[in-house]
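Hi all, long-time lurker, first post. I run a small reading group and we've been trying to get comfortable going from sequence to structure in the token notation. Rather than ask abstract questions, I figured I'd post a concrete chain and ask someone more experienced to write out its structure so we can walk through it together at our next meeting. Sequence below, copied exactly:
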Amino acid sequence: LVQKAKKAKDKLLKRDGDDRPDTGSYESFYYGGVDPYMWEPQELGATRSHLDFFKKHRAARIDHYVIEVNKLIIRLEKLTSFDRINSDAAKIRAIEKSVVSWVNDSDVPFCPDCGNKFNIRNRRHHCRLCGSIMCRRCMEFVPLPLAQKLINGTREALCVPGSPVQSQSPPAGGGGSGMGSRRGSISSLSSVTSMLEEKDDEKIRCCHHCMDTLLKIQQKLEEKDHVPDIVKLYERLRMCMEKVDERAPEYIRMAESLNAGETTYNLDTAGGLRLEVQKYYELIDALSKRILTLRAKDDPPPHPKALQLQRMVRYTATLFVQEKLLGLMSLPTKEKYEELKEKRKQEQEKRVQQERLV
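-- Answer (accepted) --
Happy to help. Here is the structure in token form:
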């Protein structure tokens, strides 16, 4: 390339300005309006790694996200830790306000999500997890079973022993029924509307931002507990292979001993072991075929790399079966075994007589 560039440069320098090629050609346009044949070979200049800078900013964002998620889980645990059924509305509201500071109503004249103006009909609702304000249309509810699942799953993921709150299980029948019994003062029409609208049994009111975060946590917990079908099949396949590696050498020793006419092993025991090994071979073949055809008819089809992995598993299992099956010796029949024992006995007697003569 360097030689071609030098030749092109020399050729261009010998020509007049009118003989130069059109710089508006496709190549010059593709290379940003610069003729590539005029490029000089360049050496690599100074380099600088931005990896540490990237890690620093990424770590800060991850720490911020983890802190916010932990705050939501802690607040969720506090909101589900007390007895809502036997608590009055004033106590419930006081506990909810103590979990997180609520935004003042006068500071938010419009819904931050949809932009609708708040009035008597379109009331303000506070998120119990972050304290923000939203209208009823933009409101979400966290079911108590989901809240308890997120709390337990997060605690198990962090491997933290049970806190004092852990021993306090939510009351039977759902601790959120007290949420439906909340009532404000009935001195105004707004309070009456509040009393009619806020009957959300076994649910915790929140904004859609907090709900999205909780759903992401739920998805991660489900992905952690979920085991793909191919992993389950492959684990069974590996177990069968390990059984074959364990039992096949034992059978080979038995077969060699029986074919030599020895009486160390029993013919029936060796036959049962051979059937066991053959069943493992059949199971290996069936499992590898199932892995090969796994999700083959799905729409959309699996990723090409996943299909390649399935083919390689099938290929490896086939080679394993062929290699091990070729090493399996056949057992003699009972008549043949009796002949082998008699022949071995005669050879031993003959050897003993020769040793006596010597």
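A couple of things your group might point at:
The two ends are 88 Å apart (CA to CA).
Strands lie at 125-126, 133-134, 139-143, 203-207.
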